[in-house]
């Protein structure tokens, strides 16, 4: 309610173009509800010009246009959780690590957490080696992470966490693209902003960096 009423206020009272508003949330259900409420508040045709979506959908849309700047094809495949797990199991077998000692789902969670902290496989390996106690499982995760990411790259594929991480990288390395989106989205509305993780926060910080709205 807070987000949708604020958007209506920006449009009706502040004369902000709906084209210049971006609203992001965490789930497809929440994004759908936001779209429905906005259609009632500002008129359906007007609401369709507002970019309302989840973090992941927003990033996928941006990457479909520009990921070639990072050396990927724009026709990349997105791996869901099941696809990721299958690939991790394949990598474990390939590098001869036993699943009984390296639970694939636990490995998947560790890789996801690393990406949400904007860590590459090399940065993750450095991070664990700098700990006072090096856990053998974490060392194995580092091995799997490197091979997993290489396999994704060879398949021109991204997992869900890559969608956010690669978008941050895209903006970091291509100021012209970042500037284009900063100039379009003058007003950013983030549902439950206090719950954002590092990669989500960095994404919004970059988009809001020019106008700070």
Written account of the structure:
It is a single chain. The protein is mainly α. Helices cover 62% and strands 9% of the residues. The chain has helices at 2-12, 28-42, 44-47, 55-66, 81-94, 104-116, 121-129, 136-154, 160-173, 175-184, 198-207; strands at residues 21-25, 51-54, 77-79, 157-159, 187-190. Helix 1 runs parallel beside helix 2, helix 5 packs across helix 6 (104-116) and helix 9 (160-173) packs across helix 10 (175-184). The longest helix has 19 residues, at 136-154. It starts with a helix and ends in a 6-residue tail after the last helix. 30% of the residues are buried.
Fold topology:
Blueprint: H1 2-12, E1 21-25, H2 28-42, H3 44-47, E2 51-54, H4 55-66, E3 77-79, H5 81-94, H6 104-116, H7 121-129, H8 136-154, E4 157-159, H9 160-173, H10 175-184, E5 187-190, H11 198-207
Parallel strand pairs: 1-2, 1-5, 3-4
Which short descriptors sum up this protein?
213 residues, mainly alpha, three-stranded parallel beta sheet, two-stranded parallel ribbon, 11 helices, 62% helix, 9% strand
What's the short version?
With 213 residues, this protein is mainly α.
Shape, principal axes of CA atoms: elongated
Count of DSSP E strands? 5
User: Secondary-structure element order, as H and E?
Assistant: HEHHEHEHHHHEHHEH
In the predicted model, the low-confidence regions spanning at least 5 consecutive residues are none
Task: Work out the helicity level.
Answer: 55-70%
**Average pLDDT over all residues:** 96
Query: What proportion strand?
Result: 5-15%
Side by side, the strands of the main sheet go 2-1-5
| SS class | mainly alpha
Helix count equals 11
- Rg from C-alpha positions? 19 Å
Main sheet: strands, sense, barrel: 3 strands, parallel
């Amino acid at each position: 309610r807070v987000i949708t009423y604020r958007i209506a206020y920006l449009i009706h009272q502040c004369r902000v173009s709906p084209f210049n508003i971006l609203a992001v949330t965490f789930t497809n259900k929440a994004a759908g509800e936001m779209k429905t409420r906005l259609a009632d508040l500002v008129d359906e045709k007007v609401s369709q010009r507002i970019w309302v979506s989840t973090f992941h959908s927003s990033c996928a849309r941006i990457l479909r246009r520009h990921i070639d700047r990072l050396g990927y094809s724009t026709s990349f495949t997105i791996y869901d959780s099941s696809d990721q797990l299958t690939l991790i199991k394949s990598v474990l077998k390939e590098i001869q690590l036993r699943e009984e000692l390296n639970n694939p789902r636990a490995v998947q969670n560790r890789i996801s957490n690393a990406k949400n902290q904007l860590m590459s496989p090399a940065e993750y390996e450095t991070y664990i080696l700098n700990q006072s106690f090096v856990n053998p499982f974490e060392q194995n995760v580092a091995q799997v992470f490197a091979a997993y990411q290489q396999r994704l790259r060879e398949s021109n594929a991204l997992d869900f966490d890559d969608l956010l991480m690669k978008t941050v990288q895209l903006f970091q390395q291509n100021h012209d693209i970042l500037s284009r989106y900063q100039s379009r989205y003058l007003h950013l509305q983030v549902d439950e902003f206090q719950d954002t993780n590092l990669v989500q926060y960095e994404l919004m910080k970059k988009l809001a960096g020019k106008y700070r709205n």
